[in-house]
Design a protein that fits this description.
The protein is an alpha/beta fold. The chain has 9 helices and 13 strands. Helix 1 packs antiparallel against helix 8.
């Protein structure tokens, strides 16, 4: 009987564990899982105490390389959400920093400062942010937008995502940061522009290809020499079951066409 150890991010564990357990039940494999975080997971992989790691990493992070294979598996996204009738359709990283950040000279206080016209122009902007232990979306936002700086004192931190969505839906002057968009008949996510002038919406394709800038990537990482051995499990982790579970847990899975291409490449030994 094969014996494998799978380690990594505790945040993805609720979605990943059932898939790995289901795979183990229907294969001649004993799998130990230790989802206690990406940092210890990476160390376990490097010292040979793990066969497969699921690691979170910013775009400039130092993932294992060389003798290791790295495959994207999911993304955590910071959505910028407004009430559906709010006329704003896109926002820049610089504008977000001026709304939410405590440092910097420029501060944006009213919607007219974002070039909105009409009655909303004189309304104060009410910034909100999701802040609970089940997501790192606020830290992601602070890292990408505020260069790890602090939030302004007037940012209302909300524990529950549904509560946050209801607050946004009830006030067209609000703008919120969340890892998931609920009540999409009442609220919507904005397109965001990064270093380029063009703003991209948070579609799975834009997130995967890095065009939507507010994302944290998660990867499957394993020794290259173990790819054939691990292939059945890797295929299960690239399947529709995990994609659906990730979506339900508030993560963005890989686009279906990308997953299918990766499955083909696995079969070819790429």
């Amino acid at each position: 009987m094969a014996q494998w150890t799978v380690v990594g991010s505790d945040l993805l564990a609720p979605a990943v564990k059932p898939v790995v357990e289901g795979f183990a039940e229907h294969s001649d494999t004993e799998i130990t899982m230790e989802f206690i975080g990406s940092v210890p997971g990476k160390e376990d992989l490097k010292v040979g105490e793990a066969d497969l790691a699921i690691l979170a990493a910013p775009k400039d992070a130092d993932l294992p390389s060389g003798n290791y294979k790295v495959l994207p598996i999911a993304y955590e996204v910071a959505y910028v959400v407004v009430e559906k009738l709010n006329p704003l359709t896109e926002v820049s990283m610089e504008q977000l920093a001026a709304i939410f950040g405590s440092s910097g000279v420029q501060k944006v206080e009213r919607w007219g400062e974002l070039n909105l016209q009409g009655p909303i122009a004189q309304r104060s902007i009410l910034p909100l942010a999701l802040d609970n232990d089940s997501t790192v979306v606020l830290e992601l936002f602070k890292y990408e937008v505020l260069q790890s700086g602090s939030l302004r004192a007037n940012v209302n931190r909300v524990k529950g995502n549904l509560q946050l969505m209801e607050m946004i839906a009830s006030d067209s002057g609000s703008i919120g940061i969340s890892n998931q968009v609920l009540l999409d008949d009442k609220v919507r996510a904005l397109a965001v522009s990064g270093s380029d002038e063009f703003a991209f919406g948070p579609t799975p394709e834009n997130v995967h290809y890095g065009e939507y800038p507010l994302r944290l990537s998660y990867y499957l990482v394993y020794p290259r020499e173990k790819q054939n051995e691990l292939k059945p499990l890797l295929k299960a982790l690239l399947g529709a079951d995990l994609a659906d579970r990730l979506d339900n847990e508030g993560f963005v899975p890989l686009p279906e066409n990308v997953r299918k291409r990766m499955l083909v490449e696995l079969d070819k030994g790429a």
